[in-house]
Amino acid sequence: MRVAFVLKGYPRLSETFIAQEIAALEKRGLDILIVSLRRPTDGALHAVHREIRAAVLYLPEYLLLEPLRVLRALLHPGKLFFKTLKLWLKDLARDPAPNRIRRFGQALVLAAEAPRDITWLHAHFLHTPASVTRYAATLLGLPWSGSAHAKDVWTIPEWEKREKLAACEWLVTCSEANRTHLASLAPPGKVELVYHGVDLHRFPPWSPKIPRSTITILSVCRLVEKKGVDVLLDALAQLPGRLDWRFVHVGGGPLAERMKRRAKALGIADRVAWRGPLTQEQALQEYRAADIFALASRIARDGDRDGLPNVLAEAQSQGLPCVATRVSAIPELLRDGVSAHLVEEGDVAAFAAALESLITQPAHRRALGVAGQARVLAEFGLDENLDRLALKFGLTSNAHRLLRSA
């Protein structure tokens, strides 16, 4: 079958896990059309984006800017138009927002312009992409499925989650915390856990060989509230002055300037390097140049939170000990005292103490890094986890092995 993958934006540097999933499914034989609700804004691509063969259909990001496409879709809406209209009006009554109107218009265009050989739709994220997918699938009379991740799980209303879960054929999600929550709202057997996993071909295991006098603490994340970079900066400022450390941050985001000002106000700006968004290949070099990985995730004021950040698995694949928070699914990967130090969200003093412990104890750093790397290699590799998703699309792991050996 040919499947349309509906994404909020493509390609995106911050959504490497989606790109690596698409590439892996293509290698297993799945024929994919990428449908993007927005055009790309990132100035760079990961290598995996260049490997993806799928064509991309960009829907109108703003309906008023492409009225002819919307008009053509309205003139040939299909026999299930009124059924879909009724569904959409019911949603609009409960969520009378401009974005809800845009979703319906995008779904009309998707239904009108999708190639006729599309037999299945799959939404990445349970919020906007799943809405467009559901309306378009209803218009076309096709089945649909979904992948849920983080913000989309925790920031949309319960009625919307229940109805989407009832309507889709199946849904996978990237953490047990997500699965437990969504399964409580879904028909039995509808929701399944599939970790994203680390592509170990792109992140081959690495063990630091040369001890460094200056300890590099790395964080890779978008500069948004839920990542808690302000907490991390506060913790760094509490480290004893005798310690020799530097902090490297990789990633962009709306809080970039605010965090730079905060580092300056805390008196640590001269120890902080802001790398900005990097490709996967560039980020790998930062992992390998670091000694400790830190992520101070928290639950944002609007309920947004991490699922299971892939950067933690990437860091551990490179033998880095981690300091992180007990938020959402992070404890599913990181084992406190075994492969990482976990503290409560927002606890600056505890975060600083954990960092100090790792900075001052190289043997302890090494032990945690080795344990974390072993766990990632055993349980969080991409291939093993993607096999489960491939089966959902009717692909077999045996077929994948044949393709890889060809």
In short:
By secondary structure, the chain is α/β, with parallel strands linked by helices. The protein contains 18 helices and 13 strands. α3 (67-75) packs across α5 (98-113), α4 packs antiparallel against α6 and α5 crosses α6 (128-140).
Structure description:
The protein is of the alpha/beta class. The protein is 45% helix and 16% strand. The chain has helices at residues 16-27, 47-51, 67-75, 81-94, 98-113, 128-140, 151-154, 158-167, 176-183, 229-237, 256-265, 280-289, 310-317, 330-333, 348-360, 362-379, 382-392, 397-405; strands at residues 2-7, 31-36, 55-58, 118-124, 144-148, 171-173, 191-193, 215-220, 245-250, 272-276, 292-295, 322-325, 340-343. The strands form two sheets. It has a seven-stranded parallel beta sheet, sandwiched between helices. A six-stranded parallel beta sheet has the order 10-9-8-11-12-13, sandwiched between helices. The longest helix has 18 residues, at 362-379. The model is unreliable at 399-406 (pLDDT under 50).
Search tags:
single chain, 406 residues, alpha/beta, seven-stranded parallel β-sheet, six-stranded parallel β-sheet, 18 helices, 13 strands, disordered C terminus
Give the SSE layout.
Elements lengths: L1 E6 L8 H12 L3 E6 L10 H5 L3 E4 L8 H9 L5 H14 L3 H16 L4 E7 L3 H13 L3 E5 L2 H4 L3 H10 L3 E3 L2 H8 L7 E3 L21 E6 L8 H9 L7 E6 L5 H10 L6 E5 L3 H10 L2 E4 L14 H8 L4 E4 L4 H4 L6 E4 L4 H13 L1 H18 L2 H11 L4 H9 L1
Parallel strand pairs: 1-2, 1-4, 2-3, 4-5, 5-6, 6-7, 8-9, 8-11, 9-10, 11-12, 12-13
Helix pairs in contact: 3-5, 4-6, 5-6, 10-15, 13-16
